Amino acid sequence: MLGVKGLLAPRWPLQQDVLSAVKLVSSALEALDSSRAPVTKRHRKLLLKTTAAGGEEELLQQRLAETQASRRRLLTDVCAKYQPGVDERHVSGRQVSRVYVEDQSRLLYCEVPKAGCSNWKRVLMVLGGSATSTQDIPHDAAHYGNHLWRLESYEHAGIAERLRSYTKVLFVREPFERLVSAFRDKFESPNSYYHPVFGRPIISRYRANATQAALRTGAGVTFREFVQYLLDVRRPVGMDIHWEPVTQLCSPCLLRYNFIGKFESLREEADFLLRSVGAPRNLTFPDFKDRNPRAERTSSRITQRYFSQLNATERQKAFDFYYMDYLMFDYPKPFNDLH
Question: How does it sit in the membrane (predicted)?
Fold first, then answer.
């Protein structure tokens, strides 16, 4: 095993003060005033408009940088309270098994399913040179094409060096919404893996008077049956990464991520990160949905509808199951009766 000391997340560099935008306006106008060519009213308006846009961009960059600093502080505080000393423990292969490596941009990305991971893998492939455009990468190529390296595949010294010097990236999603998204994707659409492997044992354990057809195919699992399986300490089939809590999937207290993004503002925050690590200007985060593209994206409204099928006790137990995700990533309680 590899012993890695806890790494305090470095402060994300704050952007240039917004007053620089005002200075830029003044200096540019002075340069125009001193030039021999006459400055028209139209030229002044165009200059002011361009500089104002630059000022707005700087404000946005500063806001995003401050958000990152706040999220890292919260992560540090929660870890210190609930998992003291965890950063002194040994790093195991499992704890970095979901972390992907992009050496050219010096990025480590922990895969969180149902939080934009397919598109993040496409971005990593473009950054690494195995693809030229995110638009040309099919879903299966992103996930099963073996174009990306996992951190666990490196030798101990390589793992330690990358953990020490690379930008460690994590994107999270509201836990109940992520759970509903996973359920809809795996159980409400035809699926040759999840129906037989998970559906059959779930129906067998939690459905009274199940039909032979349901027991044979595993199709038609209800959301309530799925949650019963999730909360059962003696599950008839194991955990899966699509609904495993992020705190277990990505070990945030151990790995101390430098960048903690949220699915709810995915495009904006992902593009901010890409600019921060020097990615090509023409590479922006894709926004297409290639899994069940005709289905409406899982939203807070849809999530509320699914959880309304549960009673208050079941909702509370589900909240307790994801409690550390809610706490560590600053998501509010999704129902008023939760405690």
Answer: Single-pass type II membrane protein
CA separation (Å) from 267 to 127, 213, 244, 278, 303? 17, 43, 24, 17, 21
Complete DSSP assignment for 73-89: HHHHHHHHHHSTTGGGS
Is residue 271 within 8 A of residue 285, CB to CB? The reply is yes
Domain identity same for 138 and 277: yes
Length of the chain: 339
The domain of 184 spans 177-231
Other beta carbons within 10 Å of 197: 16
Q: Comparing C-alpha atoms, which of 123, 96, 115, 62 is closest to residue 257?
A: 96
- 138: Cβ–Cβ under 8 A, 6 or more apart, which residues? 290
The token duo for 312 is 């208050």
**What is the reported pTM?**
0.83
Q: Do residues 157 and 264 share a domain? A: yes
d(CA 181, CA 246): 15
Q: How far apart are CA 76 and CA 256, in angstroms?
A: 8
Distance CA 274, CA 120 (A): 11
pLDDT tens for each residue of the chain, 339 residues long: 444 443 333 333 333 433 343 344 344 434 434 444 566 777 666 655 656 667 888 999 999 999 999 999 999 999 999 999 886 667 888 899 999 999 999 999 999 999 999 999 999 999 999 999 999 999 999 999 889 999 999 999 999 999 999 999 999 999 999 999 999 999 999 999 999 999 999 999 999 999 999 999 999 999 999 999 999 999 999 999 999 999 999 999 999 999 999 999 999 999 999 999 999 999 999 988 777 777 899 999 999 999 999 999 999 999 999 999 999 999 999 999 999
92 and 169 inside one domain: yes
**Backbone phi, psi, residue 118, to 5°:** -60, -45
Contact in structure between 130 and 104 (CB atoms under 8 Å): no
Return d(Cα 252, Cα 149) in angstroms, integer: 20
